[in-house]
Amino acid sequence: MDKRSTRANGASRRVQNRDRLEADIVAEAVRVFAECGYEGTSIATVAENAGLSKQNLMYYFPTKQALYQRVLDDVLDEWLERMTHLADAGMAPGAVLRAYIQAKLKFSREQPYASRVYAMEVIGGAKLYGEQIRARVIPVLRRDIEVFEGWIAAGHIAPVNAAHLLFAIWAMTQSYADFAPQMALVLNRRLGRKDFDEAEQTVVRMVLSTLGITETAPPVPPPSPPDKER
Q1: What is residue 126's DSSP assignment?
Q2: DSSP for 40-85?
Q3: CA angle at residue 50 from 45 to 52, to 5 degrees?
Q4: Residue 26 has pLDDT above 70, yes or no
Q5: Do 98 and 52 belong together in one domain?
Q6: Which of 72, 112, 145, 204 would be 177's cystine partner, CB 3.0–4.6 Å?
Q7: In which domain, by residue range, is 211 found?
């Protein structure tokens, strides 16, 4: 192996190591921001929990706001990725909406801390991340409203205010992350996969009923694997 290849391989490993370390920092930051909020979170706490010195963490994220921005960027990336189902014009409205609701509930189940960080930012008035939300969420919302308007015009669904229906779906699905502690308190147990399966069936039935869609044979969910502790 020549020197050029050796240098290239070394640079590639450094990039991979940096990416891994940044991902570890962000994963810990999501949890701390979700539990403590932006004001209650310190760089020192995130660094300690991630097994780093404060100075080492600040090499990658020089300020708390930079770390918070990265956390919310990653959350919004994944949240929007799971909202792509309404763009699939080749599926019937009922199937599209079921897939959309499944994806939103899966996000709440798999990424509860991420959902809570985003919710806390929005509830607080989106003072630190409002511009990004406006720039990225509004175009997707407009596209999805156009999908509903197309279904209505074609007679596939009953007339509905698409924006408010989407807001209701977001609220119903995200509540299983943002208010999971309250649900666990009331149920006297941690939410399990079965709860999410039943939530999906309930939300889907409510939405499809509102739109006048009748499913001929609702899909049977696959057997749920054992839940792992978060």
Answers
A1: -
A2: H--HHHHHHHTT--HHHHHHH-SSHHHHHHHHHHHHHHHHHHTTGG
A3: 85
A4: yes
A5: no
A6: 112
A7: 70-216
| Separation between Cα atoms, residue 120 and residue 117, nearest integer Å | 5
Q: What is the pTM of this model?
A: 0.81
CB 66, CB 135: distance < 8 Å? no
* Co-location of 169 and 76 in the same domain: yes
- For residues 24 and 133, membership in a common domain is answered with no
158/79: higher pLDDT: 158
Does residue 81 lie within any of the structural domains? yes
54/104 same-domain check: no
pLDDT confidence of residue 10: 45
158 and 58 co-located in one domain: no
Collect contacts of 153-157 with beta carbons under 8 A, ≥24 apart. 156/92, 156/93, 157/93, 157/211, 157/212, 157/213
Percentage of the chain lying above the pLDDT 70 cut: 86
CB 29 within 8 A of CB 48: no
Calculate what percentage of the chain has a pLDDT beyond 90.
78
- Helix and strand counts by DSSP (H, E) for the chain: 10, 0
Same domain, 174 and 204: yes
